[in-house]
């Protein structure tokens, strides 16, 4: 059991709140696995014949019988995303391992995978958040053929893993293992990349210099090396027991990476309903696993996007996670990792310093994680306090205990001497509603800003004001009509260099927006995901130029310092959003904009 009573109390609170939705979910899970034998045994002969028509003779013979296990592969492969390009070769590797074990494996379906790095600041970014729910639906379509006894999920990046998790939980009776591809090797240091971006924003270097820096930073196959949403995803899958231990941050194209993929295949076959270790994903993801995920997010200073995604992922398992839960867990969790943007290191340095095994052990020993969880690996979470290495024969994986001492205390700290006694994310509340701030990347002296508002209704308008030299003195930039119902809640990441320039000039600046920032939320205090959003008439729509705004990342307050009666009497601003309704496929997502829920409920259409 968890030693820290605060963690237990928050978990109990979530469990009790979730009872009306979790119990029906578990009942559906049990009903879906009521039949004995392989899942495809319930299919009619014509159904089954279609299901293996394209298979080779050996696989076809096995699938005609009623004993052979069949793995479904859901892949987010495309060769434009650096993180997903390595997945091209995984299906054949998985099929080969399955055949060696007397089983079969089929690609059940592909899901879309867009790159936020490509769409940042472009109209395509307005599809990004909604792509998560599309991925969940595409996962369900792939698994709907009911041919599979377990599934492997190949995905890494921002909305892709949350979407895959939501889809997997819709088939919660199936065992699931998530298979990463790993981060690219270290390139241009992230702080140097950020420096060149700021120089470009100031007009001190040109596009050629900027492109050279970006290309040296993002230079090969694998995940981007900063600690944004993609790498936060991998941390979550491991700390929630959905990866094999030690597999999150092994570089692609290495023998160990391939050995881990082969191992994941064997493990998926071992945990089906036909064996003695049946481990359906709907039981792995319970209230304790969700709390472990939130604690891991805080301890590593992870992505603000997961204040949306974790809520939506939990809901898919019938678990009601709230921002208040996330905030309370932040108060309890120490910050143990310094990885860019809340440090200079990248994820390869984090992994080399001891990585996930060291982190999980430190949190477990402090009583901040639930060890008594069910994992896909078949152990409690203590089984993840290891490092994965290539076995002596070069074909398999062996594990050794995580190091007792951090390989680099500047990157990975102990729970007894953390970088901060509180987590990296905080929920803000006040008369403007609720918002989220990532404090781990913001220097303590910069976390409180009280200044007049400069109001914009697009990030391009703020950029234009900067280029015109109009952003002088201290101010709080209010960028509104960027919420999920307005335009799909795009990330406003390209504002980071602009506001960073002004802060470096000595101005006190902050950002308030109903949009998203990014997993790479930087050194500017940014109150994001403001709820209610402007298009719903939230207080952010009543802010006027010059109003005093207070963003207090220390006490968790977000306030407009205007008399309440005056504020209430003001009519909310409106905006012409017609330009966001078409082009780059946005017309196909109008139903999402109409149906999407609020940010604090996960910004989901489900």
Automatic annotation (TrEMBL):
Coiled-coil regions listed in the entry: none
An example Gene Ontology molecular-function term: phosphogluconate dehydratase activity
Cofactor: how bound: Binds 1 [4Fe-4S] cluster.
Reactions mediated catalytically: 6-phospho-D-gluconate = 2-dehydro-3-deoxy-6-phospho-D-gluconate + H2O
GO annotation, cellular component aspect: cytosol
Listed GO biological process terms: D-gluconate metabolic process; Entner-Doudoroff pathway through 6-phosphogluconate
Source species, domain of life: Bacteria
UniProt-annotated binding residues for [4Fe-4S] cluster: 157, 224
Annotated pathway: Carbohydrate metabolism; Entner-Doudoroff pathway
Domain Dihydroxy-acid/6-phosphogluconate dehydratase N-terminal: 71-381
Group of enzyme by EC: lyase
Dihydroxy-acid/6-phosphogluconate dehydratase C-terminal domain residues: 411-603
PANTHER family: D-XYLONATE DEHYDRATASE, PHOSPHOGLUCONATE DEHYDRATASE
NCBIfam families, A to Z: edd (TIGR01196)
Family: Belongs to the IlvD/Edd family.
UniProt-recorded name of the protein: Phosphogluconate dehydratase
Originating species: Aureimonas jatrophae
Lineage of producing organism: Bacteria, Pseudomonadati, Pseudomonadota, Alphaproteobacteria, Hyphomicrobiales
């Amino acid at each position: 059991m968890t030693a820290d009573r605060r963690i237990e109390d928050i978990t109990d609170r979530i469990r009790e709140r979730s009872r009306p939705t979790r119990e029906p979910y578990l009942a559906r899970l049990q009903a879906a696995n009521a039949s004995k034998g392989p899942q495809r045994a319930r299919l009619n002969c014509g159904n089954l014949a279609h299901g293996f028509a394209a298979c080779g003779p050996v696989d076809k013979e096995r699938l005609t019988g009623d004993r052979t296990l069949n793995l479904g592969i859901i892949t987010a492969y495309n060769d434009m995303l650096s993180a997903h390009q390595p997945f091209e070769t995984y299906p054949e590797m998985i099929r080969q391992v399955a055949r060696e074990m007397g089983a079969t494996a089929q690609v059940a379906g592909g899901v879309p995978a867009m790159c936020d790095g490509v769409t940042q600041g472009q109209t395509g970014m307005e599809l990004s958040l909604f792509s998560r729910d599309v991925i969940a639906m595409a996962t369900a379509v792939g698994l709907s053929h009911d041919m599979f006894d377990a599934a492997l999920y190949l995905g890494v990046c921002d909305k892709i893993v949350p979407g895959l998790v939501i889809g997997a939980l819709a088939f919660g009776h199936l065992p699931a293992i998530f298979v990463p591809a790993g981060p690219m090797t270290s390139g241009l240091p992230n702080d140097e990349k950020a420096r060149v971006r700021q120089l470009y924003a100031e007009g001190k270097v040109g596009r050629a210099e900027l492109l050279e820096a970006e290309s040296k930073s993002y230079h090969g196959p694998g995940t981007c090396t900063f600690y944004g949403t993609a790498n936060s995803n991998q941390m979550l899958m491991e700390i929630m027991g959905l990866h094999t231990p030690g597999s999150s941050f092994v570089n692609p194209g290495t023998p160990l990476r391939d050995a881990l993929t082969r191992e994941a295949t064997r493990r998926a076959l071992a945990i089906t309903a036909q064996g003695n270790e049946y481990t359906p994903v709907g039981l792995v993801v319970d209230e304790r696993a969700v709390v472990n995920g939130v604690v891991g997010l805080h301890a590593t200073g992870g992505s603000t996007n997961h204040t949306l995604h974790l809520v939506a992922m939990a809901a898919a398992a019938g678990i009601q996670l709230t921002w208040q839960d996330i905030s309370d867990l932040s108060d309890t969790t120490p910050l143990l990792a310094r990885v860019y943007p809340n440090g200079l290191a990248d994820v390869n340095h984090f992994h080399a310093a001891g990585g996930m095994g060291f982190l999980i052990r430190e949190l477990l020993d402090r009583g901040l994680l639930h060890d008594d969880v069910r994992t896909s690996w078949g152990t409690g979470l203590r089984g993840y306090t290891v490092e994965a290495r290539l076995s002596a024969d070069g074909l398999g994986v062996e594990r050794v205990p995580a190091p007792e001492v951090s390989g680099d205390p500047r990157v990975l700290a102990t729970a007894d001497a953390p970088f901060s006694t509180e987590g990296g994310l905080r929920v803000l509340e006040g008369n403007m509603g609720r918002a989220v701030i990532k404090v781990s990347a913001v220097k303590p002296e910069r976390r409180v800003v009280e200044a007049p508002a400069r109001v914009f209704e697009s990030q391009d308008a703020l950029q234009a004001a900067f280029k015109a030299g109009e952003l002088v003195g201290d101010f709080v930039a209010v960028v509104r009509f960027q919420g999920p119902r307005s335009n799909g809640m795009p990330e406003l990441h390209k504002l980071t260099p602009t506001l960073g320039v002004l802060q470096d000039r000595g101005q006190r600046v902050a950002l308030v927006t109903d949009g998203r920032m990014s997993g790479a939320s930087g050194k500017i205090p940014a109150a994001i995901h403001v709820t209610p959003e402007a298009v719903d008439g939230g207080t952010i729509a009543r802010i006027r130029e010059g109003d005093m705004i207070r963003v207090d990342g220390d006490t968790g307050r977000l306030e407009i310092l205007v008399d309440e009666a005056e504020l209430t009497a003001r009519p909310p601003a409106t905006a012409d959003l017609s330009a966001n309704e078409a082009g780059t496929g946005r017309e196909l997502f109008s139903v999402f904009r109409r149906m999407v829920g609020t940010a604090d409920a996960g910004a989901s259409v489900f």
